């Protein structure tokens, strides 16, 4: 786990709406962001920044891309 890592996230939906989030990871290394009352559509989330001591994105160990649909 990597607690206290700064995470920047951008979310865009199929209607062209976008949201930007920034937060810190918890003691389990997880960051959580919420879109209140999201409209139907397909969403793409992009991690735009990770800042912390000895932090890197190992694409062999996790999600490299995910698309979710609501509705």
Bulk shape: elongated
Sketch the topology as an H/E string, one letter per element: EEEE
The strand line-up of the biggest sheet is 2-1-3-4
Oligomer: single chain
N- to C-terminal distance: 33 Å
* Percent strand: 35-45%
* Fraction of residues in H or I helices: under 10%
Q: Helix/strand-derived class? A: mainly beta
Cα-atom Rg, whole angstroms? 13 Å
DSSP summary: helix tally: 0
Write down the overall mean pLDDT.
Answer: 83
Question: Which regions have little confidence, pLDDT < 50, spanning 5+ residues?
Answer: none
Q: Got a strand count? A: 4
What can be said about the biggest beta sheet? 4 strands, antiparallel
Task: Walk me through this protein's architecture.
- The structure is a single chain.
- The chain is mainly beta and 71 residues long.
- The chain contains no helices and four strands.
- The chain has strands at residues 6-13, 18-24, 41-51, 67-70.
- The chain has a four-stranded antiparallel beta sheet, with no helix packed on it.
- Strand 1 (6-13) and strand 2 form a beta hairpin.
- It starts with 5 loop residues before the first strand and ends with a strand.
């Amino acid at each position: 786990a990597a607690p206290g890592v700064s995470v920047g996230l951008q979310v865009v939906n199929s209607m062209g709406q976008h949201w930007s989030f920034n937060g810190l990871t918890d003691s389990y290394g997880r960051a959580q962001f919420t879109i209140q009352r999201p409209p139907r559509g397909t969403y793409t989330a992009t991690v735009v920044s990770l800042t912390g001591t000895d932090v890197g994105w190992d694409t062999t160990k996790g999600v490299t891309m995910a698309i979710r649909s609501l509705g």
